[in-house]
Amino acid sequence: MKKIYSSYGKVNLPSKALFKTIRFFVWELWLKHKAKIKIINQAGQLPKQYVIVCNHPSAFDMFYCSYATWPNTTSFVTNRYYMFDRRIGGLMKKAGCIPKSLFTADIESVKNTIDMANKGAILGFMPEVRLSMYGELEGLPESTGRFFKKLNLPVYLCHLDGSFFIKPKWAKKIRKGPVEVTLKKLFSVEELKEATPDLVQQTMEEALYYNDFEWLKNHPEVRYKSKTIAENLESILYECPHCNEKFCLTSKGNTVKCTNCGYTVKVDDRYAFVDCGYPHYFDNFQLWFKAQKQKIADQVNAKDNFELKSKVKLSLQSNRGKGFVREAGEGTVTLNTKGLTYSGSKDGEQYDLFIPMHDTFYLCYAKDKGFQTFYGKDYYMFNPANAHESVLWYIASEQLSNNFKKLLKTDNNR
Ligand SMILES: [Zn+2]
Hints:
It is a single chain. By secondary structure, the chain is an alpha/beta fold. It is built from eleven helices and 18 strands. The N and C termini lie far apart (about 55 Å). Bound molecules: zinc ion. Zinc ion binds near residues 243, 245, 258, 261 and 263.
């Protein structure tokens, strides 16, 4: 029997040779010609070992942070999903990455992180865990403060501005423009020891907060060049503001258009909307997305029996590390205040799954694919026929989880 590949196991200090190779091929030959990086160092000389926390507007943030702290090599805690593929996973392990299952307790990841701290590693975290949909911090898990106190290392901040606009999560192509990287010290070891977990949490939340649209307002000279600046915006914008029809938007070049009513809007090189003969609804896509988010939140809060239901294909972690996931069955998935249910097939057999609502419950959006979650050591991706529908699930899961946390706090305070 062939050996089943596992994303679990010990991790080692990063290979300097690999960092040098990545720096040459990714940074020198490609990324630096797109992302015009400006480093603002308010941290002075970095010590030999430390923790660095970074906000997470785009998939390239590890590169910006590594560039700004070169020649140091940082071990980043990364999404375990990327380790599902044997080749990518192998490379990431060589780079000293520490896999973590997102939004669930991952004991191995904690052990590996502490082990790496003991080995002298520089540890990198993106505490907001997922990429933002619209260029603003969407929240930090509440355990962040407690965890950092355990590590007993000075904590530095790598704050990125403009990073979202170089490669928004929804975009297929990279754009050319500036990124500002600010390095700052947040806590010395002594300060961390004395600070309460709540203070650490609060400091992190304030330090990691970003809103690239607000940053842009203070930089009137900044432009982002792309021939496809609006393309694929329909993967996060699902409701037309003009006719209120859902899933009828298309995009090409710098234009978003509704196929139902003809509503059209253009995106300029500062991501601002330019009206095209229709009423003005939003200044930019961030405000459009936030209006959608508010609408779902209102629906979730308006009734106890809020529910989403969809026919999906089920994907699970690939067995032997060939690719990230494999198709494993199909069925119906339901989300409500009690949690998430899947009923259908898995590897040719009937399978019923129930994930109860809990304080770290979250459905991450796999762009153009579906929505996904880790639960304990298991990973599930659900692929609706219309992948864009997943945005609804993403937003609703966040709201349901927030409501659950509020209830939990109320119960605890009684
Ligand atoms: Zn319309």
